[in-house]
Fold this sequence. Notes:
There is one protein chain. The protein is of the alpha/beta class. It has helices spanning 16-27, 39-48, 63-77, 101-133, 153-173, 210-217, 226-229, 231-237; strands at residues 7-11, 31-36, 53-57, 82-85, 136-140, 178-184, 249-252. It has a 7-stranded parallel β-sheet with strand order 3-2-1-4-5-6-7, sandwiched between helices. β5 (136-140), α5 and β6 (178-184) form a beta-alpha-beta unit. α3 packs parallel to α4 and α4 packs parallel to α5 (153-173). The longest helix has 33 residues, at 101-133. The chain is globular, with a radius of gyration of 17 Å. The model has no long low-confidence stretch (mean pLDDT 96). It binds nicotinamide-adenine-dinucleotide. Nicotinamide-adenine-dinucleotide binds at residues 12, 14-18, 36-38, 41, 59-61, 86-89, 114, 140, 142, 184, 186-187, 190-193.
Amino acid sequence: xxxxxxxxxxxxxxxxxxxxxxxxxxxxxxxxxxxxxxxxxxxxxxxxxxxxxxxxxxxxxxxxxxxxxxxxxxxxxxxxxxxxxxxxxxxxxxxxxxxxxxxxxxxxxxxxxxxxxxxxxxxxxxxxxxxxxxxxxxxxxxxxxxxxxxxxxxxxxxxxxxxxxxxxxxxxxxxxxxxxxxxxxxxxxxxxxxxxxxxxxxxxxxxxxxxxxxxxxxxxxxxxxxxxxxxxxxxxxxxxxxxxxxxxxxxxxxxxxxxxx
Length: 261
Ligand code: NAD
């Protein structure tokens, strides 16, 4: 029960990694609010954790929706200790060569709007409560925040941007609030949504042989699943363990960069 009496807000907590983080935090004694654009997914998670989870349907690109999520979290649980910015979409490795000229701006705006701007807006909305609780923020990065090949140029640029955001936010919010990142590698069994602006609504992550790919390319030679990534968030959120950590980004990717030749 490392998170007893702690309260977290997780964006994109309705599915995949975010859902696994919610489940792990509840298991560790926390109460959790979710902001997600899918009311159905929220309902599923909330009903699985009656009393410990509240959900708010909204879009992370909206300042009002982020403020509403923080307000509902505080209304339900009295405070906010940890913000977890996690909601994201993928570009399905879209190359610049393949993207039409008349769609590229919309694609950039959609992906960066969710994956980077959405984190900044959530942080802005959460700041007053995190300041009160002397809490912390954790953001989901990706192997694509550190290396090429985890997405197209747009996704990789957004995830590199998240690392810059984490560092500047840690600098700006010290000494009151710590800000860190977790950079997971591929998540077996996940189904990250594509970009509507590139007509990727029907793309399915599950069509990719991701599990097999991970076994082939990772030095650890296995696929990793969402629940295996959730402990890193507990580490950064646990007030007893994370004292010195701010501006840190944990490579948590099965050693993608450690393969060598
Ligand atoms: P997922 O699609 O399973 O979950 C993402 C959740 O975010 C969904 O519930 C979705 O409804 C929500 N969401 C998407 N856009 C939103 C918006 N505009 N407003 C509110 N909610 C929105 O994806 P996942 O695989 O769990 O990915 C979570 C995070 O992990 C993302 O930041 C992603 O970039 C990162 N990541 C994923 C992988 C992977 O292999 N899936 C690898 C590295 C990093």
